[in-house]
Amino acid sequence: MNTRTRILISVxxxxxxxxxxxxxxxxxxxxxxxxxxxxxxxxxxxxxxxxNGGQAADPFVIDNAGADGEISGSKxxxxxxxxxxxxxxxxxxxxVDNKENGCNDPEIEAEPDCASTTQxxxxxxxxxxxxxxxxxxxxxxxATNQQAAIGTAWNGLTPIILQPNQTVEVGLNWAAGADDxxxxxxxxxxxxxxxxxxxxxxxxxxxxxx
Length: 210
Ligand SMILES: [Ca+2]
Ligand SMILES: [Ca+2]
Hints:
- This protein is α+β, with helices and mostly antiparallel strands.
- It contains 4 helices and 9 strands.
- It has one domain.
- β5 and β6 form a beta hairpin.
- The longest helix has 22 residues.
- The chain starts with a helix and ends in a 10-residue tail after the last strand.
- The structure holds calcium ion (2 copies).
- The site of one calcium ion has 9 residues, from loops.
């Protein structure tokens, strides 16, 4: 390699280094600071439903209906948001089950097709009211085909938002007057579940419904 060639190579190497340096100095302004102990933790949404007296909610059993000429009763729960996030409270009825439970002669007289069905009529004559802090808010009969009515009416209420640790008294009271039914409900029964849900309140999420 002659002197001229070595100089030319040195110039090329320098030019290459220079290009590399140039590229390196084109970086944009930036600043960096590292924070520690970042933590993303999901909040909690939980619900406690306690029958007044502190017991867990019992199933509904309406039996011996009509023994005193009138059907009525009530239950009240304290519903509490035991999580760390606000939630919207929903209530709906599920598993509404009207049973015939056999047909005696007086029932057949009042309900000729009694023996051909298994679905009783007791729920048809009972009106259920749901009260919030003692004030009736929604109501429906307990007819099987009306199972969705309470939940649908609930959707139309002003949203019931429970903040963490907040409680609301939810009462169910039911009644059928002595003149509201006859022998067609002899031995009939109705059972149902009250399904409470607490759904997280979000700014942009879809509006939950029952
Ligand atoms: Ca019956
Ligand atoms: Ca019946």
